[in-house]
């Protein structure tokens, strides 16, 4: 029962911190140091990543119709979606199929998301094992919490009074999508925050807060799903009954909490900036450094 309670707490931590730009991995490492699940180190490392599947599902549920690229022939547009109409061959067949069954703007969005994935995939493939061995510890987490906290405050002050150049998702260019992906790649360092890094990047590129946050949510789907699959493959699918219950409980709790947190964040940033999260990161990072120096963490 105590282990289940700890799992619920970790699920809540994941659901809250995955979408707020305050680092879910960092919080799970810190809270996990205080709440031992009583499982192997390998299982705990896998749990901290795969629990994100619950959070991903929340994005899919909330934004399903904005991301689903298919429709029926009955809903096809009267005019073609293409400025150039091929006269025949494979190109014409694809255009006919797309006009009848696809929302091409959503297909383009998914292609931009794929472009944004490239940097994180490369960095993760090259450095994942080294990062786990050297940086998944309280002090590196604290340093990154403070660093990005300062960045949020500086960037928001710099942005004050500026009108965003990109106020809609479809205005994100291919170049900007790739650059957002480069910022996301920085989040392989625990304590950085995947959402925090991409939102910082979006703000620097001239996106509105809502666009930066929304694209971050979309990008999370393949990023976190891929990371979870790799962790499961590395750990193996041979779970004990206790491990299966812990993992499923954490995912369900993370899903439910994420639903509320995503909606809260999108409503919050329509009227407020991100500086409060910056100050939170700085205070938490300083506290972690003090506790680590005292030998508590």
TrEMBL record:
Signal peptide: none annotated. InterPro entries: UppP (IPR003824). It catalyses: di-trans,octa-cis-undecaprenyl diphosphate + H2O = di-trans,octa-cis-undecaprenyl phosphate + phosphate + H(+). It is a multi-pass membrane protein. Its main location: membrane. One of its GO terms (molecular function) is undecaprenyl-diphosphatase activity. GO terms for biological process: cell wall organization; peptidoglycan biosynthetic process; regulation of cell shape; response to antibiotic. The chain crosses the membrane at residues 46-65, 107-127, 139-158, 178-203, 215-233, 245-266, 278-296. Keywords: Antibiotic resistance, Cell membrane, Cell shape, Cell wall biogenesis/degradation, Hydrolase, Membrane, Peptidoglycan synthesis, Transmembrane, Transmembrane helix. Its EC number is 3.6.1.27. It is found in: Cell membrane. One of its GO terms (cellular component) is plasma membrane. Pfam families: BacA (PF02673). Belongs to the UppP family. Bacitracin is thought to be involved in the inhibition of peptidoglycan synthesis by sequestering undecaprenyl diphosphate, thereby reducing the pool of lipid carrier available. Catalyzes the dephosphorylation of undecaprenyl diphosphate (UPP). Confers resistance to bacitracin. This is Undecaprenyl-diphosphatase. It comes from Bilifractor porci. The gene is uppP.
């Amino acid at each position: 029962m105590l282990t289940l309670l700890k799992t619920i707490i970790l699920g809540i931590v994941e659901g809250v911190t995955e979408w707020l730009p305050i680092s879910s991995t960092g919080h799970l490492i810190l809270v996990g140091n205080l709440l031992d699940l009583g499982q192997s180190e390998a299982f705990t490392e896998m749990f901290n990543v795969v629990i994100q599947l619950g959070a991903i599902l929340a994005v899919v549920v909330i934004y399903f119709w904005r991301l689903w690229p298919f429709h029926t022939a009955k809903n096809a547009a009267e005019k073609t979606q293409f400025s150039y109409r091929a006269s025949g061959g494979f190109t014409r067949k694809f255009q006919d199929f797309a006009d009848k069954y696809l929302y091409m703007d959503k297909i383009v969005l998914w292609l931009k998301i794929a472009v944004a994935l490239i940097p994180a995939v490369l960095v993760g493939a090259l450095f994942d094992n080294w990062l786990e061995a050297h940086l998944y510890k309280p002090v590196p987490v604290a340093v990154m919490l403070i660093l990005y906290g300062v960045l949020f405050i500086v960037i928001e002050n710099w942005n004050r009074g500026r009108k965003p150049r990109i106020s809609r998702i479809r205005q994100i260019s291919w170049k900007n999508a790739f650059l957002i992906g480069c910022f996301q790649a920085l989040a392989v360092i625990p304590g950085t925050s995947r959402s925090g890094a991409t939102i910082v990047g979006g703000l620097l590129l001239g996106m509105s807060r809502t666009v930066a946050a929304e694209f971050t949510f979309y990008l999370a789907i393949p990023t976190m799903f891929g990371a979870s699959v790799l962790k499961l493959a590395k750990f193996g699918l041979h779970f004990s009954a206790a491990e299966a219950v812990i993992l499923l409980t954490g995912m369900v709790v993370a899903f439910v909490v994420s639903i509320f947190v995503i909606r809260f964040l999108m409503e919050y940033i329509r009227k407020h900036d991100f500086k409060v999260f910056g100050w939170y990161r700085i205070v938490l990072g300083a506290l972690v450094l003090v506790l680590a120096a005292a030998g508590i963490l």
